[in-house]
């Protein structure tokens, strides 16, 4: 598609009128198989045009329990941040998050899948439309059992990219992964020789995968755009934005040769 | 009991026709003198009795029955010299007519029909466009394009710049039945939608019917775009062609039996990729399309004629070995015209249609590709019974066997268990065009359609996207059947010499649905037939109109208002990945739609300056359970205002200038309203679906055509064009991202496609 458009297309920043925004509570909760403490953050969304810090919720009661009989009441650290005290994330366990904040209750559940080892990062150099591009291929071997979901966080030179990457075994099950991460066409995010790539791989459950998959699918608006954007289907009740994810986590780095 | 009801109602409906006295019939074919092409829509009237008249059908055939006597028949068609023919009717007679091009009329003709047809015909929401008009209208890259020109008509909205998809009266892109010589074309676009699959050199004319289609058409909710290929010159061999910036075209036509039968072969290929090869940057890029139109007709005898038409087109887009995409349509139609009697005309068509799509990626040495496919075998039998001057009856049936391969993954280590799905789409119809009085004409008909889900696969039944039951249907077995009655009605009442009012109602149903999750329509969109979950879409359209002609039919004003309600509309749920999901039906949501609007078309039909102004005021909404909290929302192609102005000016014998101006409200889109942080990334919060608007689109295009005075048989012409004259940056995409220097601020970045695209092309004929 790029070829035709490269010849003619142009970009500019425009001013738009935005509809009023209804501020909603945003919950971010992560439990991993790495040692704790684990963090839950409670903040609020703001209008798109607003700048400055996000409002936080600091007097909530936050409890995480698992299906092995453990429960942990998190300690408020201020700035909307809550830390677990003793909980240890374990593969195969289901975690329940219960929050009471501003007279409202929110609940979420997530199951930490069995870990699939992250074997390495493969960088594939390709010439695409006359330009050198680098494909990032996470190396792992998908287990024979179907239903695995993987999420990736990509950083280049310690800067986290605001992009969502999800892979699953729907088309290819039980094989070594060969699929690359679908990087955005954004010129500003282009990878270069010498960049230090850090990739975090998470094995996530189906609901968490759907949440990030929806984000990954949301395209641009307009006649040439992708699917109509929407708030992704999260796993938290009572209309809260955000997601509660219990996942395994493993990080690798490589320098683009 | 049922049979009796049907027979009685038929008798009532067509009583006038059946009880007509025995008369004699004059019938024949009307052709163009220079090439022998049959002329469609020629008005044939009895001189002195303007209400006694008929119009030639799609094969140029007409038939009038009159009491014994002497008459004078007048044949008229705009752009051709009127011809009068005395007929002494004491037996059935055959009168074949050839009309000459009107030399005095150098200007381009905007409509192809009789001057005041808009006042006498009961048809509603119908516009016919001949290639003569389309060829003068400026388009991007100078490629004449029928579909782009149709998009300049009120009620027809382009999906956006660089897209060939269009929406008619609030319908979706897949709700247009696009026929090329009766064969459905499933993807009418080339090069990602910048061009249409219709090679203008091979096309005779095109008619768009916006919802009130006669009963012989069916299967789509919103419109019929009926494109007819040229038949070829049956007098002389002729070569014509063109060389443009993007593509070249060559057409050869000539007689098979002189004055009786002919053939035409027309090919087109783009060569952007050949230039790309010269550039080191793009030498690994493949990007081209080609298409080939063929048609031949053979006159077996006075009463039997055979037509064969074929189309084959392919698009190839590849970037090194990493990305490859190919898609194409092929269609074939074999038609047998038979004159059973001087009053009964029969056409039998065997139609084949195939659409194939392939996309492949290569990553880490492994290939992944997705393939989808739709194949139709189609039998159509249509009878036209020219019962008498008041009644023109059409009846027939249509059976289509669909084989649909859903998007199926393949490649290294991939085993897909997806199977082909089959369905049978059937219809029986009858309709009458009835001239009730001198002032009132009525078109009414009934289409009975039924769809059978056929065996060979397992069908899953979902409730709220959860699997509740699986039905394995053996090959050859018939599963679920859907039955629909589709009444069609329209009436025209002529108020006086210059004005008329119209009203109509039509029900249409649709059994094939295009699954698409992009806004503009992309070749990856896949077709799917009715199943146990997917019911046929149903649209009911009510419309009313007023037409007035001015200044001896030099100007024409048509206004129509419509209201349309749609049932069983389909959308996806959030997060559905339509390529990889094992059963796409698990991801579907169902609901309804409504659309209403006002269309105004003002035409200037004669003189040095011709053209039209089309304006549409409209609203289109959807309500789908599971989207937008179940509340009504704007459909993505909802646009409040849509204006197009087309002007063609004959400057001199050699020079023609033309221009188009368009303005439309931006598409309904969903912009973020808020933002929030998550995992150290900024996320966007969205409010109501499609509550926002892209900025408005407007653009002026100009072109000039120079026709060199012909030297003996050779005719050449140059066309110069400038697309988007004032370089408006029209919105194509809107992307939201953090400002580079101030990450707390979110920028809306608009991408535009074409600014100032000049073009030049050379056309020739000998």
From TrEMBL, chain A:
Pfam families: DUF4249. It comes from the Bacteria. This is DUF4249 domain-containing protein. It comes from Dyadobacter soli.
UniProtKB/TrEMBL annotation, chain B:
It is a multi-pass membrane protein. One of its GO terms (biological process) is siderophore transmembrane transport. It is found in: Cell outer membrane. Pfam families: CarbopepD_reg_2, Plug, TonB_dep_Rec_b-barrel. Its main location: membrane. Residues 1-20 form the signal peptide. Residues 323-725 form the TonB-dependent receptor-like beta-barrel domain. Residues 143-220 form the TonB-dependent receptor plug domain. One of its GO terms (cellular component) is cell outer membrane. Belongs to the TonB-dependent receptor family. This is TonB-dependent Receptor Plug Domain. It comes from Dyadobacter soli.
């Amino acid at each position: 598609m790029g070829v035709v458009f490269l010849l003619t297309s142009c970009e500019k920043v425009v001013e738009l009128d935005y509809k009023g925004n209804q501020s909603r509570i945003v919950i971010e909760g992560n439990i991993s198989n790495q040692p704790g403490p684990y963090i839950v953050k409670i903040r609020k969304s703001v209008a798109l045009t607003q700048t400055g810090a996000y409002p936080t919720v600091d007097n909530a009661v936050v409890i995480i329990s698992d299906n092995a009989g453990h429960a942990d009441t998190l300690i408020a650290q201020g700035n909307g941040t809550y830390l677990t005290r003793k909980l240890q994330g374990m593969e195969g366990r289901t975690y329940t998050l219960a929050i009471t904040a501003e007279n409202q209750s929110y609940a979420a559940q997530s199951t930490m899948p069995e870990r699939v080892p992250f074997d390495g990062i493969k960088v594939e150099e390709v010439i695409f439309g006359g330009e050198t591009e680098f494909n990032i291929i996470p190396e792992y071997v998908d287990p024979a059992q179907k239903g695995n979901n993987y999420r990736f966080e990509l950083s280049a030179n310690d800067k986290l990219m605001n992009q969502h990457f999800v892979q699953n075994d729907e088309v290819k099950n039980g094989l070594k992964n060969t699929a690359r991460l679908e990087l955005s066409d954004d010129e500003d995010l282009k990878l270069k020789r010498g960049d230090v790539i850090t990739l975090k791989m998470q094995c996530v459950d189906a609901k968490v995968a759907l949440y990030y998959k929806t984000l990954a699918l949301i395209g641009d608006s307009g006649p040439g755009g992708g699917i109509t954007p929407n708030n992704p289907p999260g796993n938290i009740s009572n209309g809260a934005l955000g997601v509660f994810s219990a996942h395994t986590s493993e990080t690798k780095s490589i320098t683009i040769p | 009991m049922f049979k009796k009801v049907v027979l009685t109602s038929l008798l009532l409906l067509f009583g006038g026709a059946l009880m007509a006295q025995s008369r004699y019939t004059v019938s024949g074919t009307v052709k163009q003198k220079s090439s022998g092409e049959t002329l469609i829509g020629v008005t044939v009237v009895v001189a002195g009795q303007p209400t006694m008249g008929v119009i030639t059908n799609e094969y140029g055939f007409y038939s009038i029955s009159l009491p014994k006597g002497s008459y004078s028949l007048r044949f008229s068609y705009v752009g051709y010299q009127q011809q009068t023919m005395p007929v002494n009717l004491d037996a059935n007679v055959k009168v074949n007519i050839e009309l000459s091009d009107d030399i005095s009329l150098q200007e381009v003709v905007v409509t192809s029909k009789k001057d005041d047809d808009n006042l006498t015909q009961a048809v509603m929401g119908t516009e016919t466009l001949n290639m003569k008009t389309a060829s003068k209208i400026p388009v991007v890259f100078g490629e004449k394009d029928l579909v782009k020109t149709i998009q300049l008509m009120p009620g027809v909205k382009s999906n956006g710049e660089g897209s060939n998809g269009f929406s008619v009266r609030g319908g979706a892109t897949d709700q247009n039945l696009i026929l090329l010589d009766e064969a459905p074309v499933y993807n009418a676009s080339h090069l990602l939608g910048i061009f249409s699959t219709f090679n203008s050199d091979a096309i005779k004319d095109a008619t768009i019917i916006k919802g009130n289609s006669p009963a012989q058409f069916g299967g789509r909710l919103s419109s019929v775009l009926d494109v007819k290929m040229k038949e070829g010159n049956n007098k002389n061999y002729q070569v014509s062609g063109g060389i443009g910036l993007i593509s070249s075209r060559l057409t050869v036509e000539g007689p098979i039996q002189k004055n009786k039968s002919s053939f035409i072969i027309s090919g087109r290929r783009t060569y952007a990729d050949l230039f790309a090869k010269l550039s080191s940057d793009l030498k690994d890029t493949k990007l081209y399309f080609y298409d080939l139109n063929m048609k031949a007709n053979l006159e077996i005898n006075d009463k039997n004629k055979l037509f064969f038409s074929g189309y084959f087109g392919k698009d190839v887009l590849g970037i090194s070995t990493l990305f490859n995409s190919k898609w194409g349509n092929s269609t074939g139609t074999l038609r047998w015209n038979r004159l059973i009697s001087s009053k009964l005309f029969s056409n039998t068509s065997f139609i084949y249609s195939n659409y194939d799509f392939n996309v492949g990626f290569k990553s880490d040495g492994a290939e992944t590709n997705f393939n989808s496919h739709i194949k139709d075998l189609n039998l159509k039998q249509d009878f036209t019974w020219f019962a008498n001057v008041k009644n023109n009856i059409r009846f027939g049936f249509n059976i289509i066997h669909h084989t649909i391969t859903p998007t199926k993954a393949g490649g290294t280590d991939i085993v897909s268990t997806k199977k082909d799905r089959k369905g049978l789409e059937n219809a029986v119809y009858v309709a009458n065009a009835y001239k009730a009085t001198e002032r009132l004409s009525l078109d009414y008909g009934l289409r009975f359609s039924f769809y059978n889900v056929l065996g060979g696969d397992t069908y899953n039944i979902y409730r709220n996207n959860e699997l509740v039951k699986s039905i394995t249907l053996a090959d050859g077995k018939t599963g679920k059947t859907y039955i629909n009655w589709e009444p069609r009605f329209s009436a025209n009442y002529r108020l006086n010499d210059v004005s008329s009012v119209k009203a109509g109602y039509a029900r249409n149903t649709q059994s094939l649905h295009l699954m698409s999750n992009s806004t503009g329509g992309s070749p990856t969109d896949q077709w799917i037939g009715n199943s146990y979950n997917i019911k046929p879409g149903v649209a009911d359209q009510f419309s009313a109109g007023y037409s007035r002609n001015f200044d001896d039919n030099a100007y024409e004003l048509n206004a129509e208002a419509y209201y349309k309600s749609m049932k069983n509309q389909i959308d996806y749920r959030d997060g559905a990945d339509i390529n990889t999901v094992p059963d796409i039906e698990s991801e579907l949501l169902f609901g309804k739609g409504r659309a209403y609007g006002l269309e105004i078309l003002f035409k200037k039909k004669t003189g040095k300056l011709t053209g039209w102004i089309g304006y549409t005021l409209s609203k289109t909404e959807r309500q789908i359970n599971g989207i937008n909290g179940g509340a009504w929302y704007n459909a993505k192609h909802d646009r409040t205002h849509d204006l197009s102005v087309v002007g063609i000016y004959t400057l001199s014998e050699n020079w023609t200038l033309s221009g188009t101006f368009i303005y439309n409200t931006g598409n309904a889109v969903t912009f973020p309203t808020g933002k929030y942080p998550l995992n150290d990334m900024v996320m966007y919060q969205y409010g109501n679906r499609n509550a926002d608007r892209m900025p408005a689109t407007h653009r002026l295009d100009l072109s000039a055509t120079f026709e060199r005075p012909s030297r003996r048989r050779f005719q050449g012409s140059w066309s110069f064009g400038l697309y988007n004259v004032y370089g408006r940056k029209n919105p194509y995409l809107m992307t939201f991202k953090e400002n580079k220097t101030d990450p707390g601020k979110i920028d809306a970045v608009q991408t535009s496609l074409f600014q100032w695209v000049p073009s030049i092309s050379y056309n020739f004929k000998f």
